[in-house]
TrEMBL record:
The keyword Transmembrane applies. The lineage of its organism: Bacteria, Pseudomonadati, Pseudomonadota, Alphaproteobacteria, Sphingomonadales. The keyword Calcium does not apply. It comes from Alteripontixanthobacter maritimus. The chain crosses the membrane at residues 6-25, 37-56, 76-96, 117-136, 142-164, 176-193, 199-217, 229-252. This is Uncharacterized protein. Keywords: Membrane, Transmembrane, Transmembrane helix. It comes from the Bacteria.
Length: 253
């Protein structure tokens, strides 16, 4: 299913604006951690558990039909992709921390090595490419559905890009953000010309869901972040209300 092209084009450009200008959002650079970042993280987690995970479960049946496996085995395979997304980004975060620590000891600079940071940018570019593609290929192509997807993703990008830029602002501002812009627009353009089978769409959703969970929890859980639980919870609650409201409306139709 596809959403209106002009609508998704505007959303892709909004994603690009976050990549380009997250460093200009000075109100996020506060200690303790900005409540807006915690709120955005809560919305993204709400999206994963109320939208992505149910869709992954629904695609388990398609996977079973395509492979001939039992439904439980097929669902396990699809959820393994979500785990893969989480593990990939966890591994990269660990590499960033080790690289930063090594460089601090050797050079006195609180920055990861360039090669490790570019690995992070490459993984992030893969994620935003997929999300850009999914703008044009979603199971729920209603206005409400695409609006909920956009809201969750644009707030997720604020959290993710802020964290990425914090690792190495010099590289991010000079080149890294432009790589993310190209990946976003590339994903959106690919979505216009390439329509994958529903099975593949389900796999992409699974991978994205696992990656988002890791990125958000990485930003929120460490004690040195001094994150705020109340805005995080508020983001989850407000997004849940919107999702449940959409479900109720659809159920009455």
């Amino acid at each position: 299913m596809t959403a209106p092209v002009l609508l998704t084009a505007g959303m892709a450009l909004a994603f690009c604006a976050v990549h380009l200008f997250v460093g200009k959002l000075r109100f996020l650079d506060v200690a303790p951690r900005s409540r807006w970042l915690s709120f955005a993280g809560g919305v993204a987690v709400g999206y994963v558990f109320l939208h992505v995970m149910p869709e992954i479960g629904a695609h388990g049946g398609d996977f079973a039909s395509a492979t001939g496996w039992s439904v439980p085995a097929a669902e396990a395979a699809v959820y393994t992709l979500a785990l893969a997304g989480l593990v990939l980004f966890y591994g990269i975060e660990q590499a960033l921390e080790r690289s930063r620590g090594t460089r601090m000891e050797q050079e006195g600079r609180d920055r990861p090595h360039h090669s490790v940071f570019w690995l992070h940018i490459a993984a992030s570019a893969l994620l935003v490419f997929i999300i850009g593609y999914l703008l044009n290929h979603r199971e729920d192509d209603s206005v409400a559905g695409i609006a909920l997807f956009f809201t969750a993703m644009v707030l997720h990008f604020v959290t993710a890009d802020y964290g990425t830029r914090a690792d190495h602002p010099e590289i991010y501002d000079s080149r890294g953000r432009w790589v993310l812009v190209v990946a976003t627009l590339g994903g959106w353009l690919t979505g216009l010309g390439v329509e994958l089978p529903e099975l593949a769409i389900g796999c992409l959703f699974a991978f994205v869901g696992g990656a988002i969970v890791l990125v958000v929890l990485k930003e929120e859980l460490p004690t040195d972040r001094e994150s705020a639980f109340q805005p995080f919870l508020l983001g989850i609650v407000l997004y849940s209300v919107l999702v449940l409201g959409e479900v109720a409306v659809v159920g009455w139709e």
